Amino acid sequence: xxxxxxxxxxxxxxxxxxxxxxxxxxxxxxxxxxxxxxxxxxxxxxxxxxxxxxxxxxxxxxxxxxxxxxxxxxxxxxxxxxxxxxxxxxxxxxxxxxxxxxxxxxxxxxxxxxxxxxxxxxxxxxxxxxxxxxxxxxxxxxxxxxxxxxxxxxxxxxx
Length: 159
Hints:
Helices cover 95% and strands 0% of the residues. By secondary structure, the chain is mainly α. InterPro entries: ATP_synth_b/b'su_bac/chlpt (IPR002146), ATP_synthase_B_chain (IPR050059). Keywords: ATP synthesis, Cell membrane, CF(0), Coiled coil, Hydrogen ion transport, Ion transport, Membrane, Transmembrane, Transmembrane helix, Transport. Component of the F(0) channel, it forms part of the peripheral stalk, linking F(1) to F(0). The b'-subunit is a diverged and duplicated form of b found in plants and photosynthetic bacteria. It is found in: Cell inner membrane; Cell membrane.
């Protein structure tokens, strides 16, 4: 009985003990449970990956929609600004035309008033000149009445 025999006997006892406590079944069950848990984790990881892909696609779609909406808003703002500028230019031109017309009207009125004033002055000067000429020609009592009638008639005709 040498050491090899005792090593062999210990091995046989050890194997019998392992078989008695059903260690291979427990080890197999533990390995099967672990394999099932790993499969579940892999499946869950696949599902999370698919969900992440879907969320990424949704994010990219929303990003493109937001960019397009921003471009539309900028284009609308540019159109509105162009319309406002065009409207302001049109109103400015209308204002200038109105002010020019008002100025021309005022100038025409002032011209008309000046012409009327000059005419009135000319009439007064003509009447006084005619009165002086007639007074110098007719120096009698009857002449005064004639002069007054002539002056009145000249005033009627010139005004």
